[in-house]
């Protein structure tokens, strides 16, 4: 059965990077295909019977969908009903402020911008048009805080999650003062724990360094928090796997995202890596 990945999302959010990454993983990739050509194009490729098309990734160009995303949603429903392809939609999202910065730095024109529609309005309009597609996607990745290397690695993680036994489990730390992650399955708030930030001799270190690790290891509440999060995940992860989930993200947040959440994410990732093959971690604020 052919694996078909539809790549879409906001302009400037990293769709080209995603397609290049998938191409490196052996996918046959096509970019900027108008949605009304999807079905005919896929029919012709699959009818060829070529092994070259056993893994397809198609970047859908939404510039022809200014009125609504209804046509694309209808097409996706039809594709998912096919017996000859396993279909997934990858949607790339990005913070509006970050998108404005990216377009300003690259001096590229937004696909929907015009004399009557300035950049920020074009970004908002595209986000409005694509909201139903985002809600329908199997996977949403927020690329706001990701560099090129991190985005490629994250996409590879999810690809492996679809091809290896067991789900791909990602742990990420973050700081609430920088905003919550846009894409996560579980979110744990650990701001109630003792904060090394208020210890003058510890503030400059991160949760990956020995002084912070020692401080947090000595706090009973920190150990209790780790134990309860670990036990919760051990209890419920098998049920998610039973539902054929390919990937799952666990986010742990403290105030600044540099001490408590980092320490706990490293401990959780280390623990689950002992019993699972596809475990990764990411520290958003480091």
TrEMBL record:
GO molecular function: ATP binding; GTP binding
Binding site for ATP: 9-16
InterPro entries referenced in this protein's UniProt entry, alphabetically: P-loop_NTPase, RapZ-like, RapZ-like_N, RapZ_C
Domain RapZ C-terminal: 168-286
Residue ranges constituting the RapZ-like N-terminal domain according to the UniProt record: 4-162
Keyword list, A-Z: ATP-binding, GTP-binding, Nucleotide-binding
Pfam families assigned to the protein according to its UniProt record, in alphabetical order: PapZ_C, RapZ-like_N
Statement: the UniProt record of this protein carries the keyword GTP-binding: yes
Residues holding GTP: 61-64
HAMAP family found in the cross-reference section: RapZ_like (MF_00636)
PANTHER family: RNASE ADAPTER PROTEIN RAPZ
Protein name per its UniProtKB record: RNase adapter protein RapZ
């Amino acid at each position: 059965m052919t694996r078909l990945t539809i790549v879409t999302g906001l302009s400037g959010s990293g769709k080209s990077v995603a397609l290049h990454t998938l191409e490196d993983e052996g996918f046959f990739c096509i970019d900027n295909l108008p949605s009304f050509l999807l079905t005919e194009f896929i029919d012709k490729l699959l009818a060829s019977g070529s092994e070259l098309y056993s893994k397809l990734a198609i970047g859908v160009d939404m510039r022809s969908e200014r009125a609504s995303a209804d046509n694309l949603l209808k097409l996706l429903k039809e594709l998912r009903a096919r017996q000859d392809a396993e279909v997934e939609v990858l949607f790339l999202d990005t913070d509006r402020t970050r998108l404005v910065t990216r377009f300003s730095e690259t001096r590229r024109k937004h696909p929907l911008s015009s004399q009557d529609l300035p950049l920020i309005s074009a970004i908002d309009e595209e986000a409005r048009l694509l909201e139903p597609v985002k809600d329908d996607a199997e996977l949403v990745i927020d690329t706001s805080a990701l560099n090129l290397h991190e985005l490629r690695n994250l996409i590879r993680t999810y690809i492996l999650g679809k091809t290896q036994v067991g789900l791909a489990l990602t742990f990420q730390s973050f700081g609430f003062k920088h905003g919550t992650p846009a894409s996560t399955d579980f979110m744990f708030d650990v701001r109630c724990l003792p904060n090394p930030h208020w210890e003058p001799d510890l503030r400059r270190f991160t949760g990956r360094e020995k002084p912070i690790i020692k401080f947090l290891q000595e706090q009973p509440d920190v150990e209790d928090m780790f134990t309860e999060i670990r036990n919760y995940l051990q209890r419920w992860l098998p049920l998610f796997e039973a539902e054929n989930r390919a990937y799952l993200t666990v986010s742990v947040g403290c105030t600044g995202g540099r001490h408590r959440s980092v320490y706990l994410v490293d401990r959780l990732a280390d623990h689950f890596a002992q019993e699972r093959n596809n475990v990764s971690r990411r520290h958003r604020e480091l």
